[in-house]
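Lab meeting minutes (informal)
Scribe: AK
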Amino acid sequence: MALVVGHPEVRDAARLGQVQLDAWLQTYPNDEAGIDEAWIREHRGSAASAEGTARWVAYLTEVRQQPDTLFCRVVRSDTDIVGFLCGRRGEVVGLGPMYLLDEAQGAGAGGRLMREFLAWSGDVPTHLWVTEYNVRAVRFYERHGFRVTGERELWRGRLPNVRMLRAGAAAD
């Protein structure tokens, strides 16, 4: 499967919402945390709805208008989107969301997305939230210079997340 990283188009909005929901369904079910398909659909299902598509259209439009402040890249397998990484620049850079469907993992696309994102973010400290039990994602971010800060949150009372920070190229 040939995976290509590129810029999203506004017409990709509905697919981005579906990829986001599909990635949640693949990644986050956890009996111990009380997270099942129904819980995910209740809390993230709107990503694949008309409302979610409208949010993506607005965001992708902003990305085109503000490329120094907003970042978004997609991973395509042929014409289908199988992942994406977005971010926002402020005093620090926020990474997220980032999702890669199972079938696209392990082929180097995540690393390509991250390299483009880190080139865009430059020396600015970068932070993200990651689900604590998503060990594969935590290790991926660690390989790219992120470290767990110790700050935690319980999203919607169930999903245990940890904050990670990358100090920036000047501090590496």
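Next up, CB showed the second protein from the same session:
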Amino acid sequence: MQHELKARMTNPAYILPEAGPATQNLVKATRQGGVPESTLELVHLRASQINSCGFCVDYGVKSARKAGVSDEKLFAVSAWREAPYFSAEERAALALAEHATRLADTSDAVPDEVWDAAADHYDEKQLAAIVLMVGLTNLFNRLNVTVRQPAGVGL
């Protein structure tokens, strides 16, 4: 069943006036953790793909390009395990993002080996930035999917 490419409503973060600036401040906070912006953008893109948020995937690709992510990585991020383009650090962040996004898929949503692999590459402040980015992405995905915000259309 197809639906019209029109949002059901204005994004809730714009209807509730304090929500927009609050979420934007949280996004800014993720940039203070010492993780390369390109890695945070890959994390955002992968979580958005998992959640089938067309708006966030479209936005994420554009943001990732601005952050210097190569087209090779953008085209392969959904298959990062099989693609040679990602560093060990990016792989650890992507694995953490996938597990933290798919919480209901298993009783041990983020197994120790996934966490430990990320902790081998990132310090606590950096892990905080990645975890916060994953949480925010999941929030944005849920808002945009629920209101059916179309990809490529401004809010």
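CB comment: The two ends are 24 Å apart (CA to CA).
No objections, moving on.
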